[in-house]
Amino acid sequence: MPIDPRLVVTGYGADGEAVVVRDTPVPPITARAFPGQEMYLLWGSPDGGATVGPKAPGPITLPFFAGAGGTRLLLVRFPPASALTGPPSPDDQAEIDAEVQERLPGLMDVFEPGDTSGMHTTDTLDYGICLEGELWLELDSGDEVRLTPGACVVQQGTPHAWHNRSETPALMAFVGIGAERPT
């Protein structure tokens, strides 16, 4: 049975004791630019660093990628390649790009325009954990690695793409930490 994403958040009550302040299912965000893919934006902290305590800020889930010192927690369900259809009509591209910008601002900025390989590069340190299914991580060198449940990936800002070559959806959990790229 597939995992149904749920967010449980703790905080502080009026008396200063720890309480559950949120326990709710998280609906997926979809976009035609990523057919069949479901993105669950769970939580994030502000750029520059996280704080905790009674006055900690609420979640920041957008823009999609955190700036230096910020974080993002998300789940992504990748459909099997066999479930995907061909690329959209070029006539629809402006509308598709606008939809992604509205729902997931910043996400398309990491892809090269017109490139359909899925290869992208982010200025983040990402921790990824395969929770369901099977996914392939491809690097621009041609290196590939098959991920199965329990596989953990540390993605250090290198060009990469994700591919589901199986017949079932794959679910990945990601913690992205905004980073600076030394010059």
Characterization of this structure:
The protein contains 1 helix and 10 strands. The chain has one domain: Jelly Rolls. It has 183 residues and is mainly beta. Strands 3-4-10-5-8 form a 5-stranded antiparallel β-sheet, with no helix packed on it. Strands 7-6-9 form a 3-stranded antiparallel β-sheet, with no helix packed on it. The mean pLDDT is 93. The chain is globular and about 55 Å long.
Task: Supply the number of structural domains.
Answer: 1
Element order: H for helix, E for strand? EEEEHEEEEEE
* Second CATH tier, the architecture: Sandwich
**CATH level-four homologous superfamily name:** Jelly Rolls
Mean pLDDT: 93
**What is the CATH domain class?**
Mainly Beta
Strand content: 35-45%
Query: How many runs of DSSP E, i.e. beta strands?
Result: 10
**SS field, number of helical segments:** 1
What structural class do the secondary elements suggest?
mainly beta
Largest sheet: 5 strands, antiparallel
| 3D shape | globular
What helical percentage do the residues reach? under 10%
Radius of gyration: 17 Å
